[in-house]
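Open question from group meeting: does this chain pack into something compact, or does most of it stay loose? Before anyone orders reagents, we agreed to write out a predicted structure and look at it together. Recording both the input and the output here so the notebook holds the full record.
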Amino acid sequence: MSDPHSSTVTAGIRIHAAAQFLPQESEPENERFVYGYKITMTNESAPGKVRLVSRHWRIVDSEGRTETVRGSGVVGEYPELTIGESFSYVSYCPLSTKWGTMEGSYTFEREDGSRFEVAIGRFFLVPSAPELPLETHS
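Structure tokens returned:
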């Protein structure tokens, strides 16, 4: 695997996703493997101001078990982005296996109230992933 991260552009919005294994939070003897992941969303060319309203995740562990997560906003926020602006956040994902994948989508809303889906490309939750700076600078 060359790069466990992902970077995808949909409708002018780039989503960069990366994860790292957190051994200090994990308990392999209890089948608990915890990953921190960092998402950076950038409005590269979507006109006007767009606002993230919801998220949809598909998490798959190495045994093929799938979990679907849907919710409003991200980490309690509804970031608004004009062209050139970015927003980053860090969250966590526990798995019952040593590795897995995440992918999904965000729903954004334009100033006129219309909504559009932005893909979050598949990225890998693997112990060998390079360490990330997990602090955010939004």
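Observations to bring back to the group:
The two ends are 29 Å apart (CA to CA).
The first strand starts at residue 6 and ends at 10.
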